[in-house]
């Protein structure tokens, strides 16, 4: 589902006195990285705004700075100030020009820093002592019933939560009055807290990590929002994805996990050599690719690039795509209607066929059926089959799920039995559908789900990257790796024509002689052997044609979004009459 690549690595070697790196923080523009490098003090990296490269490395040496080791650092979301704390029990507020502005000394070593996102109020804590600093005024000090390990403000800066060593969470308003006290089930120390961001439907939900291997979800009133998620690891830190649907959880088993907002553990995205102490997003390069920074207790700072694979399928005007890794969106492109299905498990593959949909989840294939009696899109689960094999392509027929893995094709019926070991489903009677399969040597073969024999149709002089059969199964269009589309008559196996400039194609669902193909933002329509009608889409997009119905062409963009392009047929009609 995701691939992680290390872009660069920096090491601050730890000594016998402590760890190499304790904390990192990015300024709001994501160009300056501050590093709490323990005995090496406060370090500054200047990053390239267009790439992940480090442009400059420099220590911040200030005579009015820390006299001890720096262990925490935090930028204010508005970017005008940042704060640090160290083993000298000092919390220092700095201006953005890296000059100290205010110092506060607590009784013990501070363990947390949390800025109010809307005003310049800083929460810091050492042991049971809580300090609320309204810059530039003197701090307000409070003593809680247990040591404080973490703190976080909600997105509007009206309330904040502090996690305690006795397993409780104190929710307080901006004037530091306690609104409620949340008690954990096992009284395990609360190691991190986070509020859902402003974009979430419920931005007042508090996520709580504790050492009982659990993630709790609570409302601001203290009421439990959903059931506690039990984990197989001890969580250390939590952060939200930009679209708020996912949680990134650093764990004591040296791994970083992806967890859905519903508490479903989807998988691990990285593995470190020591405890990961902080994991934050630096930039998004595309919808499915982002850069992250992670630090480990061994002094390593890594810039990682995490790429999520696309997961979608198109069939006869329906477009299904994965959302937030555990949900599905099904959209009727012709009627512009959409529905969301909460699968509740990691979605690996999707396949549509008529009113059916197959969803591959860990260890199972789930079959859904559309309620065709209703005007609205509605899918219901009809069966679940155990499935533990790997596959890179999944297709669906009326009575079978077809799985392709490398050179092997298997057809499994809805009872879970493999009926054919044999890819585009071209239709047919239920249980007797035929499939067209393109091979890497350029050959295209046809197989039937109820027959053990393969039929070679044709061979193109390139590696096939896409194919489609027309409405009455009389013509086959094959797109080659050389960006040439070849159109054949299936009865005579004769090539009717070929056209350059194609990376995808689709026959019209309602007209057997109308073919759409594209490259980049150039859309091309061809009617029989007539001249190609070319037009540039209104919004330039680097996408692929996935469907063609009437006067509408359906694109799948590089961001895995379905786009409808209206195509007038006036020119094509004149050509056909001529």
Automatic annotation (TrEMBL):
WD repeats lie at residues 63-95. Transmembrane segments: none annotated. One of its GO terms (biological process) is protein localization to cilium. The keyword Glycoprotein does not apply. GO terms for cellular component: intraciliary transport particle A; non-motile cilium. It is found in: Cell projection, Cilium. Keywords: Cell projection, Cilium, Repeat, WD repeat. Its main location: other. This is IFT122 second beta-propeller domain-containing protein. It comes from Ramazzottius varieornatus. The gene is RvY_13447-1.
């Amino acid at each position: 589902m995701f691939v992680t690549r290390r872009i660069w690595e920096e090491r601050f070697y730890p000594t016998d006195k402590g760890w190499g790196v304790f904390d990192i923080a990015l300024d709001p523009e994501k160009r300056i990285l501050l590093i709490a490098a323990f005995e090496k003090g406060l370090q500054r990296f200047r990053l390239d705004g267009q790439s992940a490269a480090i442009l400059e490395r420099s220590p911040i040496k200030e005579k009015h700075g820390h006299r001890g080791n720096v262990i925490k650092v935090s930028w204010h979301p508005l970017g005008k100030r940042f704060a640090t704390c160290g083993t000298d029990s000092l919390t220092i507020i700095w201006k953005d020009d890296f000059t100290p502005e205010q110092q506060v000394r607590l009784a013990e070593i501070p363990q947390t820093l949390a800025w109010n996102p809307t005003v310049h109020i800083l929460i810091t804590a050492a042991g049971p002592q809580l300090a609320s600093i309204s810059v530039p005024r003197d701090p307000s000090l409070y003593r809680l019933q247990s040591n404080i390990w973490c703190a976080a403000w909600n997105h509007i800066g009206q309330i904040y939560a502090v996690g305690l060593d006795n397993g409780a969470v104190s929710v307080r308003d901006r004037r530091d009055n306690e609104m409620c006290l949340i008690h954990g089930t096992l009284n395990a120390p609360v190691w991190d807290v986070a509020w859902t961001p402003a974009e979430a439907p419920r931005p007042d939900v508090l996520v709580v990590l504790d050492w009982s291997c659990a993630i709790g979800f609570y409302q601001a009133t203290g009421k439990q929002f959903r059931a506690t998620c039990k984990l197989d690891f001890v969580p250390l830190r939590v952060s939200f994805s930009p679209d708020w649907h996912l949680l990134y959880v650093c764990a004591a088993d040296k791994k970083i996990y992806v967890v859905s907002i519903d508490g479903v553990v989807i998988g691990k995205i990285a593995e470190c050599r020591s405890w990961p102490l902080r994991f934050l997003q630096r930039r998004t390069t595309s919808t499915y690719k982002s850069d992250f920074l992670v630090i480990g207790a061994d002094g390593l700072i890594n810039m990682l690039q995490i790429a999520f694979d696309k997961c979608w399928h198109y069939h006869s005007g329906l477009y299904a795509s994965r959302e937030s890794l555990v949900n599905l969106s099904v959209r009727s492109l012709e009627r512009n209607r959409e529905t969301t299905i909460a699968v509740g498990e990691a979605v690996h593959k999707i396949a549509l066929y008529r009113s059916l949909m197959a969803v591959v989840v860990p260890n199972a294939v789930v079959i859904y059926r559309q309620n065709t009696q209703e005007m609205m899109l509605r899918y219901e689960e009809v069966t679940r089959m155990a499935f533990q094999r790997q596959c890179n392509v999944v297709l669906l027929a009326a009575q079978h799920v077809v799985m392709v893995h490398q050179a092997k094709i298997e057809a499994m019926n809805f009872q879970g039995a493999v009926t054919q070991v044999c890819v585009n489903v071209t239709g047919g009677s239920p249980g007797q559908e035929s499939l067209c399969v393109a091979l890497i040597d350029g050959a295209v073969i046809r197989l039937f789900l109820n027959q053990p024999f393969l039929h070679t149709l044709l061979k193109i002089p390139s590696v096939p990257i896409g194919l489609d059969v027309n409405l009455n199964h009389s013509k086959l269009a094959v797109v080659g790796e050389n960006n040439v589309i070849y159109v054949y008559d299936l009865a005579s196996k004769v090539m009717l024509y070929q056209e350059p400039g194609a990376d995808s194609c689709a026959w019209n669902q309602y007209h057997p002689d109308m073919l759409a193909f594209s490259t980049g933002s150039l859309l091309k329509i061809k009617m029989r052997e007539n001249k190609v009608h070319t037009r540039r889409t209104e919004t330039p997009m680097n996408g692929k044609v996935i469907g063609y119905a009437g006067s509408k062409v359906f694109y799948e963009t590089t961001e895995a979004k379905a786009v409808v392009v209206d195509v007038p047929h006036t020119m094509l009609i004149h050509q056909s009459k001529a």
